[in-house]
Amino acid sequence: MKRFTIVRAASLCILALLLFSQMELAGPRPAGQDNWTQLVPEGEDFAAMIPAKPTVRSWPVGRSTFAPQLEQILDHHDYGGYGDGLVFVIESYKAERPQRLWNQLLKLRGDQDIVFEREIAFDGVVAKQYRSTYSTQYAQYTRRIVRFVTNEHVYFLTLATREPADPVVDRFLSSFRLRQPQDQFTPETTRAEAIGSSEAFNGREVTRKATVVWKPEPTYTALARSHQVVGTVVLRAVFAADGYVTNITATKELKDGLTEAAITAARNIRFFPAEKDGKPVSQWLMLEYNFNLY
To answer: What is the pLDDT of residue 274?
Structure first.
């Protein structure tokens, strides 16, 4: 029995050494590897690997009453999220003449502070990448904008990182490709589960406050416009440690769907989470959305 115990112990030691050597050869696991997932939205021309499940916002479409000369937009969606230190937003516009819409949108967007970096070619599409650096009272970050046109869509990608040369940007872009017929669409998922109120801090309790990168405007509902509803919606929300807005409550409301429009806009805010002692934490913030008719 004693001999069997010694032999068994020796065998276990050898097995452990073999497993350890294999782990050393394989190298360390890249950060966030398990969180990256494929995004193939239905009706879009692209597929990509992203570091977290996105929120999806669908915008009203049709002929613009403010810019009737603008090419009619048939579909407009935003796919955005945060993970592995990367804020990402994919803006999608579908049109019968996407190249014409592309030229018009470039004039309307007015990105004057961006610097051209490089061209990116994939699947016969040539995209242009630009860079800009933003400094706020609390943080500095680098933003990349990638623009390209497909047969049916215009795409604008916004990618932001705290570090100017974060390799996560190249990882994201290297996965971007045109959708293939065999690709299966990924279903839309709902994120941003509510967290306990005691898990979030106020601005005075954190060492670095949440930094907003992307704050979309709410849409004016047709009913509110017809009733000429104006005013301000005030929301209280948690900017959670995972980079998503949760626990949204209205402290000041407007009728005819404007409060709901403000909540939808707030849910799609993209930001770098607050930090406390070097770790990401959740932070309470107040948001105001002004609705005016001109």
So the answer is: 96
